[in-house]
Design brief:
Distance between the termini: 33 Å
Helix content: 25-40%
Number of helices: 15
Number of strands: 15
Low-confidence stretches: 1-16
Oligomer: single chain
Number of domains: 2
Mean pLDDT: 95
């Protein structure tokens, strides 16, 4: 009798959380279809090689808009449209950074201006470099020691964190605030050590912001370059000279790209997406071309396998995540204005490497329900459901009370190439990319069936 009662309770629990043997069958169908017939890899090659990097406001980004709209139609979307959004236009232009010691000649350093930074209007700006290793060390410097100097923030990306996103989050404040901190004490421009887990001379760009009216340049150098500069500063006075033409060029009307397959039960919406824009170096393959093609793959797989989705499955290719998040903000605004009901939203913006888990930013009961499906995902290498963050473009939806999530790939190599010229198609593995698309399709299948 106790055994019967125990079995009944177990089955009741499984029914509550919506997990059945049929789900295992459908998970296998999803994985088999995508690994054998998925188009994400070939589409990523098309996007990266024929369009390339695509900063918001650029002509390349506008080409990517039309590309994404067509790919969504090809995937079987019932409806495809462009959502208008005003985006900032930032242009890099020609730039150079040189250094010399009192007895030496000018030597060029490999560098990148940080995104949204102002430049030098094509003029040389020079001064003595002073180095600090942390914010705390910088805060102790009196303004007279900084005035007319170049501040080199030599803060290392921590190698201690196994989850490399923690190292990135720890170091990110140096990228975003170095220029304004330097300006407040009268410095001429800022140099930062790149937010990189690699030990090479590849500089990483990425967004910075100004907190005051004085806008001075900020540039990044690679890890090995930073080490060499730091060693030089131990024994000699070093002068730096920057010449750059970057700067903001106003705003431009652009678009996020949206496609969906209509729900058979109701109009409630499940979102999967990534950001269509990238930085203006490399090809934007992992960040975030991978997320775009994986999201389109979800829609294609639902159509190919003939799933009769209860709720509307919507793919959103967000504009302007990299230097403004205008696409995500606008999407949330329009969703609220239209009183759209969103059941769930997941973003894939952490690279196309092997998927390891799904991060869940939602209430306790929803999180527990998804975690109860772990045994379905485990055969596909998905085991990590402990994190509680979601994608940048989704925070407006999360603020509206929508349960949000993010695909969690293996991150060990991501910050070697993030925001660099190294983020190219060749760095993406076909099976890893398609496994991520499979995981996204599987979680959306479960949400659609159970919520």
């Amino acid at each position: 009798m106790k055994k019967i009662i125990g079995t009944a309770l177990l089955l009741a629990g499984l029914m509550t959380y919506g997990q059945t043997k049929e789900d295992s069958v459908q998970f296998a169908k999803i994985s088999t279809e995508i690994l054998n017939n998925g188009k994400a890899y070939t589409e990523l090659k098309d996007l990266t090689k024929n369009i390339g990097h695509r900063l918001s406001g650029s002509e390349a980004y506008e080409k990517a808009v039309q590309w994404a709209a067509q790919k969504l139609r090809d995937a079987g979307a019932d409806k495809v449209w462009l959502q208008e959004v005003m985006v900032p236009v930032w242009e890099r232009g020609k730039e150079s950074l040189q250094i010399k010691t009192s007895s030496g000649k000018w030597t060029s350093l490999k560098m990148l201006s940080l995104g949204n930074s102002e430049g030098t209007d094509g003029k040389d700006v020079s001064g003595e470099i002073i180095m600090v290793r942390s914010m705390e060390e910088y805060d102790k410097l009196p303004p007279e020691q900084v005035k007319d100097k170049i501040v080199f923030f030599n803060y290392h990306f921590s190698q201690s964190y196994v989850e490399t996103f923690r190292g990135y989050s720890d170091a990110a404040k140096y990228r975003t605030t170095a220029a304004s901190l330097t300006a407040k004490k009268g410095g001429k421009f800022a140099i930062i050590r790149s937010l990189s887990s690699a030990f090479d001379n590849v500089p990483h760009t990425g967004a910075m912001r100004y907190s005051g009216d004085q806008k001075i340049p900020a540039v990044a150098i690679g890890s090995s370059t930073a080490d060499e500069l730091a060693e030089l500063l131990q024994s000699q006075k070093v002068t730096a000279k920057l010449n750059s033409n970057c700067g903001m060029k106003g705003e431009r009307l652009s678009h996020s790209v949206i496609g969906e397959i209509t729900g058979k039960k109701d109009k409630s919406i499940i979102v999967v997406g990534g950001h269509l824009d990238s930085w203006d170096v490399g090809e934007g393959a992992h960040d975030d071309g991978a997320g775009i093609v994986q999201s389109i793959e979800v829609l294609r797989t639902f159509k190919k396998l003939g799933f009769q989705n209860n709720h509307t499955i919507r793919v959103v290719c967000f504009a302007n995540e990299e230097n403004g998040v205008k696409g995500g903000i606008q999407y949330g605004k329009i969703a609220k204005e239209n009183s759209e009901k969103h059941l769930f939203a997941i973003e894939t913006d952490a690279g196309g490497f092997t998927p390891r888990g799904i991060s869940l930013e939602m209430d306790h009961n929803k999180r527990k329900q998804i975690q109860s499906w772990a045994s379905l995902f485990l055969p596909y290498g998905i085991y990590d459901f402990k994190n509680t963050y979601s994608g940048t473009d989704l925070y407006p939806l999360h603020d509206m009370g929508v349960p949000t999530a993010e695909l969690v790939p293996d991150s060990q190599r991501y910050f070697d190439i993030h925001h660099t010229e190294e983020d190219t198609f060749e760095k993406v593995n076909r099976r890893e990319l398609l496994l991520g698309a499979s995981t996204l399709t599987q979680i959306i299948y479960m949400i659609d069936r159970n919520w």
